[in-house]
């Protein structure tokens, strides 16, 4: 028996089969060595880009303009939404104005009523027969109020005119009566003069004995009667003259008293008129401010108050506006252990997490600012450095998408290139270094 037959008998396989197995093993070994060598060469010579990763959000390089309301109120209408572009002065919101309009209407009615009264008082003070209603156009209610006050003025003037006319008639009667008394007084004066002459003549004749004393007594009695009547008439004339003078003063006093009372009433009403005008001006200013307008041109970034009927507190922000021309920047946080690898001017890849990651590519950016000192996160109590990056171009974004302040961003800041071997061996070297430095 030969060796080949013996080997075949022992293994159950032919030498050709065994040779094929050995060849396959050799080929596998060569392939493995080639793979190991290729991987080793790649790990030693290939250059991989490393990056520092930070998270942040989009911000604007200028402060957002805040639209606020001074007094607050109830929201009646919302005309803008985030992303809308507005021009300076565009209406963005309206507040409910029912209460303001009611208050203005009440005060305007009071002002119209008091203005009509003031016009009547001024006419009475100046002795005018008509009310000055002013040159400004008036509504129907104001015209009715002025017409009513004009009627009161006419009635008041008619009453005073009637009183003055009655007093005038009385004065005329007294003057006429006085004129009769004066005539009678003159006649009696003439009679008295004659009687006194007759009395003197008779007294002489009685002394001579030509007349009886009784005749002298009759003449003396008549003379005394005429003198008494003359005194009585003089007294009546004086009384009538006093009454005429009093009536004249009363006629003048009626007009002057009316003018004085009108002047006092006007002085009393003028402060309230000024107060009402000031109140109306203040309410109209508030009514004007009930329309919230864009303080400048820009894009609506946020509408914190977004429910009709919601109550706005005084000074509350109702719209946040990105000013027109403001640049968008990426503000992100860097770990203190990586800050030494970040410098201004480094390239960065910006990944916007709000977009569809399968259809939205990363955008190239440039680091424009690195914080000089670390800051402390109030929530996590972790330290970080604040950095900023500026997108170089946004044309790579899908159509219909836009960068909006507040959008979250993941930033990959490119650092020095390293080989794969460096990545694999760095943790081992760091562990070995720490182990060699520990006591």
From TrEMBL:
How does it sit in the bilayer?
Single-pass membrane protein
**Pfam families per the UniProt record, alphabetical:** Beta-barrel_AprE, HH_AprE
Indicate whether Protease appears among the record's keywords.
no
State the similarity comment: Belongs to the membrane fusion protein (MFP) (TC 8.A.1) family.
Compartment annotation: Cell inner membrane
Q: Which InterPro entries match?
A: Beta-barrel_AprE, HH_AprE-like, MFP, T1SS_HlyD
| GO CC terms in record | plasma membrane
| Domain AprE-like beta-barrel: from-to ranges | 328-415
The chain positions of domain AprE-like long alpha-helical hairpin read: 106-284
What Gene Ontology terms for biological process does this UniProt record contain?
A: protein transport
* Species assigned in the record: Roseovarius mucosus
Membrane spanning stretches:
25-45
For this UniProt record, the keywords arranged alphabetically read as follows: Cell inner membrane, Cell membrane, Membrane, Transmembrane, Transmembrane helix, Transport
Protein name per the record: Membrane fusion protein (MFP) family protein
